[in-house]
Amino acid sequence: MTTTTVKDKTEHFTPEVRAEIDRWIAKYPAEWKQSAVMGALMIVQDENGGWLTNQLIDQVAAYLDMPSIAVYEVATFYSMYELKPVGKHKICVCTNVSCMTNKSDVIVEHLEKKLGIGFGQVTEDGRFSLKEVECLGACGGAPMMQIGKQYYENLTPEIVDAILEGLE
Amino acid sequence: MRSWKAWSKKRMANEVCLRTLDLERPWLLEQYQSRGGYEMLKKILTEKMAPEAIVEEVKMSGLRGRGGAGFPTGLKWSFISRNAPGQKYVVCNSDEGEPGTFKDRDILRYNPHQLIEGMVIAGYAIGATRGYNYIRGEFWEPYERFEQALEDARSAGYLGENLLGSGFDFELHAHLGAGAYVCGEETALLESIEGKKGQPRYKPPFPAHFGLYGRPTIINNTESLASIPMIMEKGGEWFADIGVKNSGGSKLFSISGNINNPGVFEIPMGTPFSELLAMAGGMKDGHKIKAVIPGGSSAPIIPGEQMMELNMDYDSIAGAGSMLGSGAVIVLDERNCMVKILERMSYFYHEESCGQCTPCREGTGWLYRVVHRIETGQGRQEDLDLLDDVASKISGKTICALGDAAAMPVQGMLRHYRDEFQYHIDHKRCMIGVG
Predict the structure, then answer these.
(1) How far apart are the C-alpha atoms of B11 and B13, rounded to whole Å?
(2) Contact at 8 Å (CB) between B409 and A96?
(3) DSSP secondary-structure letter at A31?
(4) Which residue among B102, B180, B344 places its CB closest to the CB of A140?
(5) Which of B17, B92, B144, B292 is close enough to B307 for a disulfide, judged by CB 3.0 to 4.6 Å?
(6) Which residues neighbour A79 within 8 Å (Cβ) at sequence distance 6 or greater?
(7) Is there a contact between A97 and B341 if contact means CB atoms under 8 Å apart?
(8) pLDDT digits (tens, 9 = 90+) for B110-162
(9) Integer angstrom CA distances of residue A140 from A31, A99, B255, B276, B411
(10) What DSSP line would sit under B264-298, residue for residue?
């Protein structure tokens, strides 16, 4: 891994992205810029179509004056960071107990059949990817899924169809 | 302990953390203030109330940590040395992730100002001028709602410097997680705020002495902190009296599963489970209750008929060999195969183990693989003893409670449903038609 120079700090990110990261940095004590790493990774991931490249991880490290390895640790530890390309719409389906007993398997089957992909895959046109996730804390609306930042609850195959049709 | 009849008379709902819920757009500052919100903070600051008196009031309330561990909140606060020099922190744990739990999400969405007020009061009580609320990464809507509330509170003078001219400063920010159940463990959460992997720390030292950024820190669950303004307004005794002995107050129960009206109900501790089930619309499609996970998926399962006799408080549930935990109640009807349920739960703990301690990292994998082979008809006669053995070798042998959380459901299942597991092994299929 090459060392990224200080010059890169302003080179790689757009002013908008830098402003967003700086907003996170401002939340923490001046000597704890590292605390902004989770926010920063999420911002650059969103900017990059939903996934992190090694280059982006290195750039975040440089921007926050962190060793790259420390940022890789974070990027690989948390489940919401994606290290491979995902669809424009990342569909996260909960299959934990409350959803399972409310037939999340029917939702999963329906999505797999409709999109022609399984968990961890992306549709050929790049529009959708499917991901199995653990409890998202919305068990009262089981079965449920998350697409992007939005929760969708009390799903049936028909409701899923309507939701997908409503997406760009 | 009060009788059921006395409880009926005092019956109340949504009067503490969800006290704005009946209002339109209940999350707005003006709505919160219309219910007396921030009045307590004003009173504390203008009267310069003694911080020790606040801690005493919280102790008297009998409030126990609502995240699942049930540790007395007032006692936790008293571990902080208020006059220690330097920065101290108040941290709120909104990393709601225990399967079955969805109550803190509602506090964040519907009454964020009460949490803010509770955190400022906590800061005043322990002499901290900074706070963080750690919200799980998936909770984008609650995060945005909370951020807006912070902005509004700041504009109104409830956050920032020299609050209401009192000379007391308090600044509060929200931190967003990125998907890791283990960050609900308090020291993993602190690591995560520090920009690291969420791996729990050894205790001691406890956060009260060495917490966020190495500074004295109190860390409490969302519901615990949101209860504080009402405890201060109406008194610790009032709060304690809502509940029963050893279980003060009301509690938010998230109830889900095979029921008609799943949701969050804020009701007195000690409410009979049968009453909670009735509030939640009873069993779906006329099915029979088979079993209940009473406090989040880590809590050992309890057979339905036994559960119908229990009350929703710490002692009643503990007496049945389980725990009240986070108050997440998952109700299962007779169509559920217990092997399949356990397989899913064991997969969860295996997936979420942070990998730091060998018994948990390896043991959760063993538990999952063995339950999986029983579920898929590959079970061996020795497997049930093996599960017992592995579970007992994880319990108590790890830095944090995730290991215990993985072992307890296994032990609970084998205690009550061993015959179902044995049937799976003997017949290579489920004794339930749908398994």
Answers:
(1) 7
(2) no
(3) G
(4) B102
(5) B292
(6) A133, A134, B178, B179, B180
(7) yes
(8) 999 999 999 999 999 999 999 999 999 999 999 999 999 999 999 999 999 99
(9) 41, 9, 7, 14, 26
(10) EEEEETTEEHHHHHHHTTSBGGGPPEEEEE-SSTT
Count the helix, strand and coil residues of chain B and give each as a percent rounded to the nearest 5: 45, 15, 40
Q: How many CB atoms lie within 10 A of CB B1?
A: 14
**A96 to chain B: which residues are within 8 Å by CB?**
99, 297, 344, 348
- Rounded Cα gap, residues B35 and A25, in angstroms: 35
Structure tokens at B91: 């941290």
Ranking A5-9, B52-56, B133-137 by mean pLDDT, the lowest is: A5-9
Q: Is B8 helix (H, G, I), strand (E, B) or coil?
A: helix
Residue B129 sits at the vertex; the CA angle it makes with B177 and A41, to the nearest 5 degrees, is 20
pLDDT tens sequence across B196-246: 999 999 999 999 999 999 999 999 999 999 999 999 999 999 999 999 999
User: Rounded to the nearest 5°, which phi and psi values hold at A90?
Assistant: -90, 115
The reply to whether B344 touches chain A by the CB within 8 Å rule is: yes
Apex B294 CA angle, B405 and B243, nearest 5: 115
> Which of A134, A152, A153 best probes binding to B when mutated, by most B CB atoms within 10 angstroms?
A134
Q: Are strands A89-94 and A145-147 parallel, antiparallel or unpaired?
A: antiparallel
What the block records as the tokens of B189 is 């959460």
Residue type (1 letter), B355: G
Could you give the CA distance from residue B183 to residue A78 in angstroms, rounded to a whole number?
10
Angle (nearest 5°) at CA A110 between A108 and A113: 105
Note whether A151 contacts B297, CB cutoff 8 Å: no
Query: Residue B368 is which amino acid?
Result: Y
- Which residue, chain included where needed, has tokens 């561990």? B69
Question: In angstroms, what separates the C-alpha of B140 from chain A's closest C-alpha?
Answer: 6
Please identify which residue in the block is written with the tokens 């949490």: B115
State the Rg of chain B over Cα: 22
**Phi/psi at B64 (5° precision):** -115, 145
Residue with tokens 């109700």: B331
Instruction: State the greatest distance between any 2 C-alpha atoms of chain B, in Å, as a whole number.
Output: 74
- Single out the residue of B75, B81, B58, B83 nearest to residue B225, CA to CA: B58
CA-closest candidate to residue B108, choices B89, B128, B136, B131: B136
Q: What ipTM is given for this predicted complex?
A: 0.95
At A155, list the tokens: 């799903």
**B84 near A CB under 8 A:** no
Q: What are phi and psi of B173, to 5 degrees?
A: -130, 160
> B71, B74, B193: which is closest to B126 by C-alpha?
B74
**B contacts of A102 (beta carbons < 8 Å):** 257-258
E runs forming strands in B125-232: 130-135, 171-176, 217-221
Comparing CA positions, the residue from B144, B62, B157, B132 lying closest to residue B105 is B144
Q: Please state whether beta strands B171-176 and A150-152 pair in parallel, antiparallel, or not at all (unpaired).
A: unpaired
The 3-state DSSP class for residue A87 equals: coil
The neighbouring-strand residues paired with B247 are B244
Among the partner-chain residues A81, A96, A151, the one whose CB lies closest to the CB of B178 is A81
